[in-house]
Amino acid sequence: MSATSLSSIAGRGTRRASNDGFPELDDFYRNGRRTPFSLFIRYLRYGMEKKEICERIQRERPDVVGISSSFAAYSRQAAEAAAVAKEVDRFIVTVMDGTHPTLFPRCVLEDGDVDYVVRGEGETPLRELVHGLSSGTGPRSKISGLSFRRNVVHHVGGINTEDDIDTIPA
Q: Is residue 158 part of a domain?
């Protein structure tokens, strides 16, 4: 089973965006205006554009695509990455982790393009999920910190915390 992490393929460069990530906030982006939304006045998109992500997934042909979504403000971009993966191949398994899906797993899973959410620290749950998918055993119901949707949203255990810090890569 091959896996691709969009955080690793998204690239390291930045690109200036003209509020394309938050068009509903255009009125708040006016020069000289100070609001809580001012943080987004210099919005930068990190990494690849949708077309590049699509091409990379087509080239790599992964079975699983992992997407990190650390900030709710950028959750739409993470959801778009999952949608791109599903456009390339509806059978690609998409897994999202990070702060946003940990706090809002139901919301993330309801759009239909994310198959699994890892809540909390993801090293062990993701490894167990990929192992279960590749072996055909699919031990979803035994992986603490995993959420998935099968007609309704299921949550296994609480938010995962790693007991052994050595399991987390440096």
A: yes
